[in-house]
Amino acid sequence: MPREKEAKRDTLTTRQGRPVTDNQNLRTIGDRGPATMENYHFLEKMSHFDREEVPERVVHARGTGAFGYFETYGKVGDEPVEKYTRAKVFSGEGKKTPLMVRFSTVAGAKDSPETERDPRGFAVKMYTEDGNWDLVGNNLKIFFIRDAMKFPDMIHAFKADPVSNVPDPTRMFDFVSRSPEATHMITFLFSPWGIPATYRHMQGSGVNTYKWVNDEGEAVLVKYHWEPKQGIRNLTQEDANYIQSRNVAHATQDLYTAIERGEYPEWELFVQIMEDGYHEELDFDPLDDTKLWPEDQFPWLPVGRMVLDENPTDFHAQIEQASFGTGVLVDGMDFSDDKMLIGRTFSYSDTQRYRVGANYLQVPVNAPKNKVRTNQHRGQLDHRNPEEGSSDPSINYEPSMIGGLEEAEEKAPQHQPTYNAAAMTKPIDRPNNYGQAGETYRNLADWEREELISNLSNVLSQCDERIQEAMVYHFSQADEEYGRLVKEGIEKKTQEMKDMQEEEMPGREAGEQSRYGKGTKSQQKATEEAVDKGNESEPY
């Protein structure tokens, strides 16, 4: 194309600002000769390319996001919000707070399909007038475990075999079979709720229990729920398989294109409120994140709405480097004694320091919009504004009599919970591992129960018989029909595999199940078919 027909563009420069006159060719001795060492532009370009990815997240690696705002109703249901919390983000009807959201899958790698059966992350960062507030949760409102001590083991079990790197459901169900508290979450995950159709059509939840604190320092327990105005849509396994064969990034593309064409997704934020305490009237511990709070006792109360109306302009800078933490709260909020929440609060922020760096909060997408004044400085890639320090930069400590920063004046009393118990390492005394799992099973629509039984039967039929027996026991404890149908489904699927092996693979042991490192029978068959269906070609 003649250069005069090209679009007018800005001049390319090095990262030091020098214009680049040749971005196509190395500097060499002769046009074929060896390259010279002083190829500064090439060395700078290539060395940065070698380092342009940060380590992917251990969990929630695959994700996308967008920007928008939260608009508060100024009320909790019909009551003024100030009755329960002094957090300014909820005060003043109609006030809008800028935010960004990152949606994700949990166990898959960075480029894994978005149709996988997996909880979806739902992380919201609000840039409030009192600093950042991160509400980090999932689409499903409960979790697999209730104690953070088990979290690394759970994630290890849910990921691929560490020897062969082949995914294997036996690993997950081996862990779950010894963790009865996971029965409720497994019931949701293997129903259609385990594969949301898109990020726009799924609910969100804080999952863990937090506290709201008012001007008097009084606190209540609170749970957060995001409800999509677009409606809720979930996929069957068959539908998910079809979509995955055509697009492994369908949910990312759906969110981006919806916002691009002006169909801004919206969620309404609801809270459930409970007085802090033991609550003897409940048959479960209200701090147990494997449980739902009954809506008839603790109704959903609307507090505001979220609208996403802006796409990222640089995915890596704004979405991949976005860093969240369950400990990122503002005044008027506090932690409950939820054991998973406490464990997550350390882990989330610590992993960002490893992944993005000690100064990850200076990355624009993570930085608060209000003024930052801190003596925490230095470290790799420290580029804070000098104004973030004190008027005397020589005094980078506190307290001081002669200058530097000082503590803020306490304008309202702090919440001061009191305790009188021995320190111990023991489980909670009201586990009730099966009650709500049974209720959830019975509340599913007929087609959802059929899909649940089918999905569990297909996967468990590949597992060790001891794991099958344990899982059927757990399901039976939740609901007799639930366990019986899964058992029958496993037997039926096992017989189908036996018949298939007798017809197609003579000489193999009938009913052979998954072994670590080999994957499921369907995975093994697909591997064989890839060779059998491959078309031979001549070398060139």
From TrEMBL:
Reactions mediated catalytically: 2 H2O2 = O2 + 2 H2O
Biological process according to GO: hydrogen peroxide catabolic process; response to hydrogen peroxide
Keyword presence, tRNA processing: no
Pfam families: Catalase, Catalase-rel
Keyword terms, alphabetized: Heme, Hydrogen peroxide, Iron, Metal-binding, Oxidoreductase, Peroxidase
Needed cofactors: heme
Superkingdom, natural source: Bacteria
Functional summary from the UniProt entry: Decomposes hydrogen peroxide into water and oxygen; serves to protect cells from the toxic effects of hydrogen peroxide.
Family according to the record: Belongs to the catalase family.
Name of this protein: Catalase
Source organism of this protein record: Salinicoccus cyprini
